[in-house]
Structures are given as C-alpha cells and as structure tokens.
Amino acid sequence: MTVSILTLCGAGVGTSEILRVSAQRALARLGIDAHVTATDEQHVRELAEDAQVILTTADHAQRLGRTFAQVIVVENILDQDELAAKLADALE
Questions:
Q1: Which residue of 7, 35, 44, 61 is surrounded by the most CB atoms within 10 Å?
Q2: Is the torsion defined by CA of 39, 40, 44, 48 positive or negative?
Q3: Of all helices (H) and strands (E), which one includes residue 3?
Q4: Cβ-proximal residues to 76 (8 Å cutoff; 6+ apart), any chain
Q5: What confidence tens digit (pLDDT) does each residue in 16-54 have?
Q6: Cβ atoms of residues 61 and 71 within 8 Å
Q7: 92 vs 74: CA distance, rounded Å
Q8: What is the DSSP string of 10-69?
Q9: DSSP-derived 3-state class of residue 86
Q10: Counting Cβ atoms within 10 Å, is residue 49 exposed (0-12), middle (13-18) or buried (19+)?
Q11: How many CB atoms lie within 10 A of CB 13?
Q12: What architecture (CATH level 2) is domain 3-91?
C-alpha cells in the first residue's frame, strides 16, 4: 500500500518542496512506498482528506486546524536523521 504524505508551507514552493525531497530520501532509506506532494496552506484542506501524514514546521502546524492525517512537526527540514526517525515512528 502506498502512503500519501503532504508537505506543507505557506506558498507551497519553498519549505514544502525541500521537505518533499527530504521525505522521499528518508522514505527510500526506510523502504516505505509513499506518494509525497508539496502543497500550500490554501490547498491543504482538499488534499488532506486522502493523506495519512502531513509534514510541516511548527508555525504551519499551529494554523493547520483539525485533520485526520497525522501531523509531524519537523524542526530541521534538512536533517535526514530527524525526518527518517519521525516518519519511521509514524508509519512503521
């Protein structure tokens, strides 16, 4: 089964793209099949209905509101070890 993951930032092109690439690398290391989509705050609601996980920073997580997806707050978007550990905890 392929896991659906969203990466979220304000505009959907900066932090969320970096998180998307970092998440894909971490997921490959973990051997987890996932579809990772970068998005912005405006479109996250419509995409979150099908997502199991949302990766974002603390400031965006506070504004996210209610969702059935598991929200993972990433402290350092470039830290592969942090991301792999948090994704492993959430998905394994």
A1: 7
A2: positive
A3: strand 3-9
A4: 82
A5: 899 999 999 999 999 999 999 998 887 777 777 888 999
A6: yes
A7: 18
A8: SSSSSHHHHHHHHHHHHHHHHT--EEEEEEETTTHHHHHTT-SEEEE-HHHHHHH---SS
A9: helix
A10: exposed
A11: 12
A12: 3-Layer(aba) Sandwich (3.40)
- Which pair of tokens denotes residue 47? 């995409």
Q: What is the residue extent of each domain of the chain?
A: 3-91
CA gap 21, 34 in Å, rounded: 12
| Residue 35 tokens, joined | 């579809």
